[in-house]
Design brief:
Number of domains: 1
CATH topology: Carbonic Anhydrase II
Number of strands: 15
Order of helices and strands: HEEEEEEEEEEHEEEEHE
Distance between the termini: 82 Å
CATH superfamily: Alpha carbonic anhydrase
CATH architecture: Roll
Bound molecules: zinc ion
Structural class: alpha+beta
Largest sheet: 13 strands, mixed
Strand content: 25-35%
Radius of gyration: 23 Å
CATH class: Alpha Beta
């Protein structure tokens, strides 16, 4: 071998070694544990906080995606092609669950939302204190998410209702003394029937954008419909929820070029 051949041979070995070590590095990063028994929380000072959700386990990688929620709603453009929300309200009996992250109300079948020709069924609603979405940088005291699902596609449409501290909320009053106090505790009451129509504001103007679940696995399957008009609940009512779920708002996520549209009558 002449001198230049030796140089090429060494360069070749070097590249192979570098390539192999780089590839190994990537593969190690991709080997995440199963999400069974994986815990997450809202505290970024811990390793299970929101900044780390996407790296906790194999099914939570969407949390590091580019189509995440919540967001700060700002600069929305009016879109005359948007339609008003068409919701058919049924009555549901009461099934409240404290899942350790939120207070969730599982609803009986019967309430549907039709949006852009697709019908979604209300499965549950749950609360965040303070709000997850912000509007022009302003946070609200609470936000309620009404989770609707299209059974054939699995896609979700979630109506977000912002809550300001103010007057006592008659709808929440039905449940306020029955909120399950500990994780995994439940409260069921077949005699306590309600319609979510009694909670939603009369004005259903909304902001909409494409996003995700705001908790792991952060699946990017959500059409968000955040109502522009907040409702009110008393300081004591909001505190009752906050005392159980603590601060359960994921920080707002980068838009990554998404547009926010606004429907108004
Ligand atoms: Zn939520």
């Amino acid at each position: 071998m002449n001198k230049s051949s030796y140089v090429n041979w060494f360069l070749g070995i070097g590249c192979l070694v570098l390539f192999a070590s780089c590839k190994d590095g990537n593969e190690n990063e991709d080997v995440l544990p199963s999400c069974t028994d994986v815990h997450w929380n809202y505290d970024n000072a811990t390793e299970d906080g929101p900044d780390h959700w996407g790296k906790l386990c194999v099914d939570y990688t969407d949390c590091s995606g580019a189509v995440q929620s919540p967001i700060n709603i700002s600069g929305a453009s009016d879109d005359a092609s948007l339609e008003s929300l068409v919701e058919v309200f049924g009555n549901s009996t009461t099934h409240i669950v404290n899942n350790g992250h939120t207070i969730q109300f599982n609803t009986d079948a019967g309430t549907t939302l039709t949006y852009k020709g697709v019908t979604y069924t209300l499965l549950q609603f749950h609360t965040h204190t303070p709000s997850e979405h912000t509007v022009n940088g302003v946070s609200y005291d609470m936000e309620v998410h009404f989770v609707h699902k299209n059974e054939s596609t699995g896609k979700l449409a979630v109506i977000g209702v912002l809550v300001n501290e103010g007057a006592d909320n008659a709808f929440l009053d039905h449940f306020i003394h029955h909120l399950p106090a500990t994780a995994d505790a439940k409260y069921d009451d077949a005699a306590l029937s309600f319609s979510i129509a009694d909670f939603l504001p009369a004005n259903k103007n909304y902001f909409t954008y494409g996003g995700s679940l705001t908790t792991p696995p952060c699946s990017e399957i959500v059409t968000w419909l955040v109502l522009e008009t907040p409702v009110e609940a008393s300081h004591a009512q909001i505190e009752d929820f906050h005392a159980l779920e603590h601060s359960n708002n994921r920080p707002v996520q980068d838009l990554h070029g998404r547009t926010i549209k606004r429907f108004h009558m």
